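Contributing: when you submit paired examples, paste them exactly as shown. First protein:
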Amino acid sequence: MTEGAAGTGGGPPVPEEPRIKEYEGEGITVTFEPRRCLHAAECVHGLPEVFDPSRRPWVLPDAAPVERVAEVIRRCPSGALRYHPSRGGAEEPPDVPATVRRSPSGQLVVRGNLLVTGERGVRHETRAVLCGCGASENQPYCDRSGPCAEPDDGGAGER
């Protein structure tokens, strides 16, 4: 047996790739990264005909006009939901100027043209809720595993 073989320890664990689900529609493709979802429910409240967690698949991109789907996805504070056009067209525009807001529970709610550095390197983002307490197991993103789990009076969706 060779020491240091895969799965035998000896080094730090390799962070797992983010699991991203894709829901393709005629004019828009919606992506969802479950580990980043903080259940703000902007999607479900904004377009229940498109976003219904009791249904499989839970996202039906063609159930509403493309522009409306994109508008509701941009309300997702965590960036767990994203979109890109199915056939060319404009990508999600970042907020200008970029903004950073600390929620009452300590999360950093950021919007704009962002480069977020984490265990897997640098990711381009337009929206994210970053951990402000250091307890998240999904650094640098908040997963509400620490003090950020406490409900706050402003909600992550506020701008």
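Second protein:
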Amino acid sequence: MAKTETGAGTGRRVSAARERLLGTAGQLFYAEGIHTVGVDRLVAEAKVTNATFYRHFRSKEDLAVAYLQSVDQAIRTQIDSLTAADVPTDGILRGIGASLVDQIRSPGYRGCAFLNAAAEFPDPDHPVHRAVVRHRDWFLQTITGLFAEITTEQADHAGRHFVMLRDGAMSAGYLGDPVLAGETLQRGIEGLLRIHAARGQHEPTASASGQASSSVTTVAGIECSPSSQV
């Protein structure tokens, strides 16, 4: 019988074989693409049988959805832990940006797992595409909510601006210079925060020559890629 362990805080039994499959899929799907990796290879590298695979996942696409959900949950957990801590709202937004910069500059970085998956599954009705959209809807709502805590005036605009900065930096960091992409992202976030704070104060926008705050809280694990551990 396969070993199981109790999921943290869930009271459910988690299959070790399922976790190996999910971890293996995360590494291979992120590094090589979902379409490229076949079930036979997943089974071999996870050291399970075909029967075990299909007991846990109906198809490779079902596993791909679970992979994206695991990345999504890791990001939700990390942001929730930061918002529950005694960190100013602008510090949370800076921290998310700083963590994205760390990811962009990390070895093996291959862009955003969600954007990569959406490119492979363009059909909006496909379960993988829907999983991407669900994550992005949540992320946008979360970022917009943080800007609304600073001021509700044009918080929707600020949230969309932040997400577009993030998307551009993650793509540019993979396709171009990751150091420059990270610096541009942080400068963009800093400028966006200045402008948005000024809206709440009903004052003219601060000079563009202002520098980024020296106090930045890094949010560990805000990554649109799977964990390095299988």
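If you have annotations for the second protein, write them as plain sentences, like these:
The longest helix spans residues 60-83.
The chain is about 65% helix and 5% strand.
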